[in-house]
Amino acid sequence: LILGMMPLLHTSKHRSMMLRPLSQVLFWTLATDLLMLTWIGSQPVEHP
């Protein structure tokens, strides 16, 4: 019952991420950084 009423009770004025270009750029930068660091961390350690 409560979950069914949530869309009707939600009155937040927040816009979605599609309408915030800077947030979208920062999100994709974070996602790319996460993937790059995961890949770098999985590489074997080599002595210089």
From TrEMBL:
One of the protein's GO biological processes: electron transport chain
Gene Ontology annotations for the cellular component aspect, listed alphabetically: mitochondrial inner membrane
Gene3D superfamilies found in the cross-reference section: Cytochrome Bc1 Complex, Chain C
InterPro entries given in the database record: Cyt_b/b6_C (IPR005798), Cyt_b/b6_C_sf (IPR036150), Cytb/b6-like_sf (IPR027387)
Classification via SUPFAM superfamilies: a domain/subunit of cytochrome bc1 complex (Ubiquinol-cytochrome c reductase)
Main location: mitochondrion
Segments forming domain Cytochrome b/b6 C-terminal region profile: 1-48
Subcellular location: Mitochondrion inner membrane
Topology within the bilayer: Multi-pass membrane protein
UniProtKB keywords: Electron transport, Heme, Iron, Membrane, Metal-binding, Mitochondrion, Mitochondrion inner membrane, Respiratory chain, Transmembrane, Transmembrane helix, Transport
Molecular function as annotated in GO: electron transfer activity; metal ion binding; oxidoreductase activity
Protein name, as recorded: Cytochrome b
Organism: Mammuthus primigenius (Siberian woolly mammoth)
Native organism taxonomy: Eukaryota, Metazoa, Chordata, Craniata, Vertebrata
